[in-house]
Fold:
Amino acid sequence: MNGKQMAVKQWVKSAVERAFSLNAAMPKTPPIAASQELYLIENDFVTKEDMSRLKAGQETEATLLNRPISVTDSFWFLHSLKEIFAEETYRFRSDVESPYILDCGSNIGLSVIYFKRLFPNARIVAFEPDPHICDLLKRNLMAFGYDDVVVEDKAIWCEATTLRFESSGSLSGRLTGFDATNGWDSPRVPVATVRLRDYLHEPVDFLKIDIEGPEVEVLEDSADRLTNVENLFVEYHSDPEVEQQLDRLLSLLKNAGFRVYIKEAWNNLPLSFLRKDYNPCYDLQLNVFAYRVAN
Structure:
């Protein structure tokens, strides 16, 4: 074996060793979709009886980790359980014992519960503008004993003001006082808003934004303070009646020093080229994961 062959053999050996080393260091792979329900049951996130009830009908009460929890919609509760606890969509690492987390769009609190299980001493501010759902959020956090979470019954926006909020009664409530046009036949209530940038004056370990539409405007208003954010999750919503803003979102994340990974959040247009056959609330929903890579 000549010197060149020896070098190639050594390179292959080193590559294999690196691959096994990286694999051993990786966190446990989330369960595949087909086994998510079984995973949730076997790990006591939900009982087998609750799973059957939730799949069969519309329930407003369930159990999570053997504690009572109030829900708004059976289907979306199960969807959120799988996304948050089985897939661990919001999992991140932190070098500090008490990471600072901003949860914009907390809904009934599943994401907050996940964060507190991941980091029991985390400092969390949870924003939920829907009055009824915010009451459920507070009730659920009380059931888990998380009395140190700051709950803001306000919407995230570009200024502190009052806007109309269209309540869906579940996951899809949103502000309607900006340029969203495909209105729903849902109750509308006035809600107070806060400016996100006012919460970004200090290091933020995780910023979650799932606010059903105005995420690009909010992030653009906060652009010069995004350097204080270590990890950022944003669900991008494309209103079919408004020019798409994905390019603006990706540009501002790049300018803030993030790398991104993107996944489909929902299959809005299964046959995309037959767009005229659909009347979607959103014609594109994406989960955007923005993270930093150490030099």
